[in-house]
Amino acid sequence: MDGTIATTVGINQAGGVLLPDAVLDKLYQSYALKQKRVAFACYLIASILFDVWAIAVPQGQSVESIVVTSVFLTINLVLAIVLRFCGRGRFRGVIWEIAPHLAWLLAIKQLFLQLFLKGSVTPRDSLGWAVLLNFLVYMTLPVLLKYTGILLGLGSFATYVNAIIGLAKKENYFWQQQVANILLLIAATLIGLLCYFLAEAKQRRAFLEAKQGLEVKMLIEEQSAEQERLLLSVLPEHVAVKMRQDLGSTNSEQFKKIYMSRHENVR
C-alpha cells in the first residue's frame, strides 16, 4: 500500500491526471467511435450508390428484384437524412447505437434477396459488393471491433458464401470459384483489419497527445495558483497585483523596481 501511495503522489507532483486504466480505455473507445461516425457516411454513400447501380444497370434482374432494391434505396436515404438532422439531437445516443447495426442488416438482407429473386444465379453474382461490404464493415461502421465488429464481418462472410452455395447453379468449376470467392473475402477482411488497426493506432496517439496536453495545462494552472497563493501570503494584495503585472510585461528593467507605497494618517 505504501508503494501505491508513493506512486500516486509522484504522479500528482508530475501533474498527471489520475484515471484508472478501465476509465481511460472507456474514454478512448468513446472517442474512437465518435471519430468513426464521420466514416459511417461513406458506408451509407456506398450502399446508396450500389442500389442506384443495381436499378439502373440491366443485369437480367426481375421486377421484384428492382422493387426490393428501390425499397432498400429509400430506407438508406431515410437513414442518411435521420443521421444528418437528428444525429446531434436529444436522442443521438440511441440513434448512433442502432444506425450501424441497422445499416449492416439492410445490406445483408438486400444482398440475400437480390440473389434469391434473381432468375439464374452464377457463382460470381454480387461478389464485388460482398467484398466491398466485408471491407467497409471494419473501416466505416462505428462499432467496437472486439465484439460487434468481428461478428458483423463474420456475418457478411457467412451470408454471402452460404447464399451462393445454396442458390447458384452447380456448373463447371463451381467449387473452384467458391474457393476463389472465399480467398477474395478473406483478403478484403485482412485489408479492412489492417486499415482498422492503422487508423486506431493513429487515433490512440492523438488521444494520448490530447491527454498529455491536458495534463500540462492542469500542471501550469496549479503552479500558477500556487505561486499566487505564495505571493499573497507575503505581500499585500495591491503590491502583489502590481508585481504580477510587471512580471508579465516585456520590460527588461522590471527587476530594478522597488515596490513602495506611502500611507499617511495611519493609526
TrEMBL record:
Adenylate cyclase N-terminal domain residues: 23-249
GO terms under biological process: adenylate cyclase-activating G protein-coupled receptor signaling pathway; cAMP biosynthetic process
Pfam families: AC_N
InterPro entries for the chain: AC_N
Keyword Transmembrane carried by entry: yes
Name of this chain's protein: Adenylate cyclase N-terminal domain-containing protein
Taxonomic lineage of the native organism: Eukaryota, Metazoa, Ecdysozoa, Arthropoda, Hexapoda
GO MF term set: adenylate cyclase activity; nucleotide binding
Source organism (scientific name): Anopheles christyi
Domain of life the protein comes from: Eukaryota
Record field: transmembrane: 38-56, 62-82, 94-115, 127-145, 150-168, 180-199
Entry keywords, A to Z: Lyase, Membrane, Nucleotide-binding, Transmembrane, Transmembrane helix
A GO term from the CC aspect: plasma membrane
